[in-house]
Write a structure and sequence with these properties.
2 domains; 4-stranded mixed beta sheet; two-stranded antiparallel ribbon; 60s Ribosomal Protein L30, Chain: A; 2-methylcitrate dehydratase PrpD; 8 strands
Length: about 475
């Protein structure tokens, strides 16, 4: 884009310009492969989530809707309208809290954007490259809107401070941009799709604190909204040109005076946030990951859980609201899902065992959440704010773990850099292992391995049918 021309255009028009240029020229070198890894990660996470109540509930609703058989609802055996597929697949993608994370906005961008782009790509027969270019721009739009709500002085997202789920709020707009790109809308149409979706995004975070599974549907609804917004724009509905920066626009409405409009378009098209987005090695809230890493290191050093008499988990002050409060809920989570948001429980699970990449799905079943060994260890955990962690957060989600054993020895492990991010990335083989382990929960070993290959081959794929046929599944109740 040409900066002088861009400066005369509104924010949503500049985002649409990026979308059109990228559709014409493709993503910068290396970014298609990056997005292919994210698509692969997402379909693996989605296959693993097929047995969750959120999946069966949304699938039952979509089954009742009926309509054209345009796109695959992953793992269900269903072909449904594209917007319905986006709803199911976005719900699946976020149901296990295993989806990628952008810092410091603390967004899970792929789980809203990729299901929308995949559904429209399948419905229209778009190429793998077209899918990846659209998803890449949609993810970029999502995280830049998230950064528009990030307050450097606060060291946290204003969305989060207000109890809003920025992932789904911003994700609806990013999903609309991606869907509009694949649909073939021009710059005005893409801008209108984004402007329409800005009225559709929503999500509250109270379930992270005190329970409820509605959060699992947030990304599905955002993906659904994105596809619907693109369809509405294609049929002539319009959005306001100042939908992002206006007095009653997106950022001011959600974030008030703390909104940073300039962050959305700073170096747009020149500097991409996309490659810095973290993959998750563990299927739980990202705030818990450094504590898990520290606990796994403790175990590797030979610390025996039966010898532990005291545990202190130091973390950024801001994350304690999610992983440590209310303390009685976090020490004895009421279900496997709630255990995924507990600092004490996740540390205990990592100390006791774990599988896969260290801690995996078996650690977050309802049965595991009732395991007395885990609960006895979790009861020993005292969560405290840590000054160094506060300095680092939210550019990383750090933690320090201090353990005292029966002989009085005090052990300490500090983790400043999260596994799965640019400073400590998952290799392609580690990511493929994650996908195979996820996919094997509903597919055979050979099919799970084939999913990994098909995902990585998307940049050269003529369409997305090979991947979607592999992940279609035989259906669940």
């Amino acid at each position: 884009m040409n900066p002088p021309e861009a400066s005369a255009r509104t924010v949503v028009q500049q985002l649409a310009d990026l979308a059109v240029v990228t559709r014409r020229d493709g993503l910068p070198a290396g970014l298609r492969d990056d997005v292919a890894r994210r698509v692969l990660d997402l379909v693996g996470n989605s296959l693993a989530a097929g047995g969750e109540t959120s999946a069966s509930a949304v699938t039952a609703v979509v089954r009742g809707w009926g309509g054209p058989t345009d796109a695959t609802a992953i793992g269900t055996g269903l072909k449904v309208p594209a917007a319905a597929a986006a709803l199911v697949n976005g719900t699946l993608a976020h149901s296990l809290d295993f989806d990628d994370t952008h810092l410091p906005s603390v967004l899970h961008p792929s789980s809203s954007v990729i299901p929308a782009a995949l559904a429209v790509a399948e419905a229209t027969g778009a190429s793998g490259a077209a899918l990846l270019d659209a998803a890449g721009v949609g993810i970029e739009v999502t995280v830049r809107l998230g950064m528009g709500g990030y307050d450097e002085s606060l060291g946290n997202s204003e969305f989060f401070e207000r109890g809003q789920h920025a992932t789904s709020i911003c994700g609806a707009v990013g999903a609309a941009v991606a869907a509009a790109m694949v649909t073939g809308l021009d710059a005005d149409g893409i801008a209108h799709a984004a402007g329409i979706a800005a009225s559709m995004g929503s999500g509250l975070l109270e379930a992270n604190r005190t329970g409820g599974t509605v959060k699992r549907v947030h990304c599905g609804w955002a993906a659904h909204a994105g596809v619907v917004a693109a369809d509405l724009a294609a049929h002539g509905l319009t959005g306001p040109p100042t939908v992002i920066e206006g007095r009653f626009g997106f950022l001011h409405a959600f974030c008030g005076d703390r909104a940073d409009v300039d962050a959305v378009t700073a170096d747009l098209g020149e500097r991409w946030e996309l490659p810095g987005i973290f993959f998750k090695p563990y299927p739980c809230n990202h705030f818990t990951h450094a504590g898990i890493d520290a606990a796994l290191e403790m175990r590797a050093r030979g610390v025996d859980p039966v010898d532990i008499v005291a545990i202190e988990l130091g973390a950024p002050t801001a994350v304690l609201r999610t992983i440590a409060q209310p303390p009685e809920e976090k020490a004895r989570p009421r279900s496997g899902y709630h255990a995924a948001f507990s600092g004490p429980y996740t540390v205990a699970a990592a100390l006791v065992g774990g599988a896969g990449l260290g801690v995996f799905h078996d650690d977050f079943t309802d049965e595991a959440a009732l395991d007395e060994q885990r609960l006895n260890l979790a009861a020993l955990v005292r969560c405290v704010p840590d000054a160094r962690c506060d300095e680092i957060f939210p550019h990383q989600f750090p933690a320090v773990l201090r353990v005292t054993t029966t002989d009085g020895t005090r052990h300490e492990v500090r983790v400043d850099v999260n596994r799965g991010g640019p400073g400590n990335p998952l290799t392609t083989e580690e990511l493929a292992t994650k996908v195979r382990l996820n996919a094997s929960r509903s597919l055979g070993a050979d099919a799970a391995a084939a999913v990994a290959v098909a995902g990585l081959d998307l940049p050269s794929a003529p369409d997305v049918s090979r991947l979607m046929n592999l992940v279609a599944g035989a259906g669940r109740g």
